[in-house]
Write a structure and sequence with these properties.
An eight-stranded parallel beta barrel has the order 1-2-3-4-5-6-7-8, surrounded by five helices. It has a two-stranded antiparallel sheet with strand order 9-10. The radius of gyration is 18 Å and the shape is globular. The protein is built from nine helices and eleven strands. The chain starts with 31 loop residues before the first strand and ends in an 8-residue tail after the last strand. The longest helix is centred in the middle third of the chain and has 17 residues. By secondary structure, the protein is an alpha/beta fold. The chain has a single domain, classed as Glycosidases (TIM Barrel), CATH 3.20.20.
């Protein structure tokens, strides 16, 4: 839906080359899903600011700790063609996930995803390499403990037949405590469907964001080495930083530079404290997003396997 006075952008879902079957739900090389994290009630506002005539390909929301994935799935059913991503807040510090004590709960989440019947992205315990999620960051949860828990959850989903779940292993850009490489947290190719990274273009200089230790370029190379598609799972310019075209250009140029790897960009459309990430409040940034994506068929509005 586009308000009068705002140029419409058409994000085509086109046929053509498709990534290898091992890259679950990934589009062909050079194609990119655009997604958003926002309140469902504000989705049309975001669409208008971005110039989207339908809805983004991916819609992300967070669970509460130990919460259900079902509310996000239910939201997605109200917007045909839009694929849900669940950022799943699963506390790990007590070891109960790995030990199997939480299996009934895990199976219930897997069954809800299976019943949904279409692609679902699961972004489990994101930014594990950071310091601000004590239930799955160090010191309470080590990389090895995180990996064991992740593999257990993945195995439960496979056991329940929830093959429509694509697991997104999502780090925060750059390295965390003690300069530990992000790869230390990687559960292994058999347990990860997408490599995710969260990176905000005005959080550092462009050189550091792109080429700092485990920066955006390094993570794209890491994913390529493991034959996984990349999702930039959180990005946005932020007020009170200047509203310019540069942050949008940085992200779109990075994606264009890695056509074999970068397959999804999910915008973080919220206000958090003094930082305003909402696209509608970034007039110049929104205009640049529209200019760069308008009528460009590489930006898709439907996830592979979601139609029908």
């Amino acid at each position: 839906m586009v308000c009068a006075g705002v140029a419409a952008t058409v994000w085509f879902a086109r046929s053509g080359s498709v990534a290898p079957a091992s890259a679950k739900f990934a589009p062909g090389n050079g194609n990119v899903y655009l997604g958003v994290s926002t309140d469902l009630s504000r989705l049309d506002v975001f669409d208008t600011a971005a110039g989207i005539t339908t809805h983004p390909a991916i819609y992300n929301r967070w669970t509460t700790p130990d919460g259900s994935v079902s509310p996000t799935l239910a939201d997605a059913t109200t917007m045909p063609g839009m694929t849900p991503m669940v950022s799943w807040n699963l506390p790990l510090s007590d070891g109960s996930v790995t030990s199997g004590k939480r299996d009934a709960y895990l199976r219930a989440q897997a069954d809800a995803v299976k019943k949904f019947g279409k692609p679902v992205f699961i972004r489990l315990d994101w930014e594990m390499n950071a310091t601000w999620y004590p239930e799955w960051n160090v010191p309470a949860v080590s990389p090895s403990a995180f990996i064991a828990a992740w593999r257990h959850v993945y195995d439960v989903f496979q056991g329940e037949g929830a093959s429509n779940a694509a697991f997104v292993w999502c780090v925060n850009v750059w390295r965390g405590p003690n300069n530990t490489e992000n790869s230390a947290w990687y559960p292994g190719d058999g347990y990860v469907d997408w490599v995710g990274v969260d990176g905000y273009p005005q959080s550092a200089t462009s050189d550091f964001l792109l080429d700092g230790p485990d920066g955006l370029n390094a993570m794209a190379s890491f994913a390529a080495g493991h034959h996984k598609p990349v999702m930039l799972a959180e990005w946005a310019p932020q007020l009170p930083q200047p509203d310019t075209a540069a942050p949008v250009d940085l992200i779109l140029d990075w994606a264009t530079a890695h056509p074999d790897s970068v397959k999804a960009l999910v915008y973080f459309d919220f206000v958090v404290g003094a930082k305003d990430y909402q696209l509608v409040d970034h007039a110049l940034g929104a205009a640049e997003l529209r200019r760069r994506t308008q009528f460009d068929p590489k930006y898709l509005d439907t996830v592979v396997g979601a139609a029908g």
